[in-house]
Amino acid sequence: MSLDKQHEQMKDQIEGRIQDLVQEAAPVRREKKEKPQLKESIYSLRLDELQDWIVANGEKKFRAAQVFEWLYVKRVKTYDEMTNIPKSLRDKLNENFLLTTLSTIVKQESVDGTIKFLFQLQDGYSIETVLMRHDYGNSICVTTQVGCRIGCTFCASTLGGLKRHLLAGEIVEQVVKVQQILDETEERVSSIVIMGIGEPFDNYDAMMNFLKIMNHDKGLNIGARHITVSTSGIVPKIYQFADEELQINFAVSLHAPNQEARQKLMPIARAYKLEELLEAVRYYTKKTGRRVTFEYGLMSGQNDSVEVAEELSALIKNIKCHVNLIPINYVPERDYVRTSRSKIFEFEKTLKKNGINVTIRREQGADIAAACGQLRAQERSEETK
Fold first, then answer.
1. Beta carbons of 352 and 358 less than 8 angstroms apart
2. Are 220 and 72 in contact (CB under 8 A)?
3. Are 224 and 171 a contacting pair, CB within 8 Å?
4. Which pTM was predicted?
5. What does the pLDDT read at residue 379?
6. Which among 151, 97, 116, 135 is positioned nearest to 268, based on CA atoms?
């Protein structure tokens, strides 16, 4: 069987399992609205794709590198600013590709410097992007889907379900937009986390194009080791991602130490059992030689006891990993309560005692709607019902 055929079969299997999960969680099906036709973004094209398109449209191949420089080095906002590009090519680009697909609806700034953006897309839907400031530089958290169908019970991103996948260019443009703002103070985006609204591995091809564009030395040239992608646990895609053999950092949302507890928090665990997930993670660490980060959100009375920390330690002790403890942000639409500071430190101490590498994520943006999907839920409630 050809690789293309295997790839198509894998996509069909994943789609089937997730659709079964969605139907379980929401048996009442809503009538589908007709989707508007989206115009492609210029940022969706890798350099090789742009070269092919330019040659196919009767222009010189070298023009692609020039256009790339205008997009990612000079970061222009209109095609007319590309002054060394012939007008004939600028007109063709303008006719076929949008240069701007995002417009800012809301911009919230925290006292700690965190900035959260709510962007409107060309079809009227909205997405969130977050700029976080650290001692080591500026990090940006990007969104990969409008909404999410994974259904994690503690997350505001899933409210209203999945509306659509983002184009690769819509993911890229989030970084470009934030970088244009940082240009005003001569700063730069130094790292990227793909942990915003949506499940990145549910929009795999667009995510991979985004990674290649971000990492390209003629693009924004952000090193692979400065990019992290996170998944809730779509097992076949973990194997596929491992086989890409990238230097991208990889994280898995774990949140529980056993199957029963995990599937209560994350319905995806009914489609892909915890045992299957850990087997895929072991494959990843063996194939790439890299460690995995387990994201673990602490929720009071749910998964934050010392006994649970002991169980978690036993579960992952033989996996090349690191645990990132996340004090869950309170979301009004969800019932979970944040774990107390004392219990967070107890949980951390227990993991360390058992030889597990662990850190506690620094809280940022507590005075704004920083939780994933929270700003969208506040400002665009019609999208999250």
1. yes
2. yes
3. no
4. 0.89
5. 65
6. 151
In tens, the pLDDT along 52-84 reads: 999 999 999 999 999 999 999 999 999 999 999
Q: Return d(Cα 331, Cα 338) in angstroms, integer.
A: 10
Q: Which CATH number fits domain 101-384: 3.20.20.140, 3.40.50.880, 3.20.20.70, 3.30.1330.10?
A: 3.20.20.70
83 vs 70: CA distance, rounded Å: 9
Question: How is residue 148 written in tokens?
Answer: 């999410």
- What is the C-alpha to C-alpha distance for residues 298 and 359, in angstroms, rounded to an integer? 13
User: What is the CATH code for 42-96?
Assistant: 1.10.150.530
pLDDT at 182 over 80: yes
Best CA proximity match to 261, nearest among 273, 278, 276: 273
Q: What are phi and psi of 330, to 5 degrees?
A: -70, 130
Q: Which of 59, 128, 170, 173 is catalytic?
A: 128
Q: Reply yes or no on whether 141 is catalytic.
A: no
Q: Where are the beta strands (DSSP E) in the chain?
A: 103-109, 115-120, 126-134, 137-141, 145-147, 162-165, 189-194, 227-231, 249-253, 292-298, 321-327, 358-360
Whether pLDDT at 330 is above 70: no
Question: Is 59 annotated as catalytic?
Answer: no
Q: What is the pLDDT of residues 213-231, one digit of tens each?
A: 999 999 999 999 999 999 9
Q: Out of 141, 152, 321, 372, which one is annotated catalytic?
A: 372
CB 35 within 8 A of CB 164: yes
Distance between CA atoms of 216 and 67, rounded to whole angstroms?
14
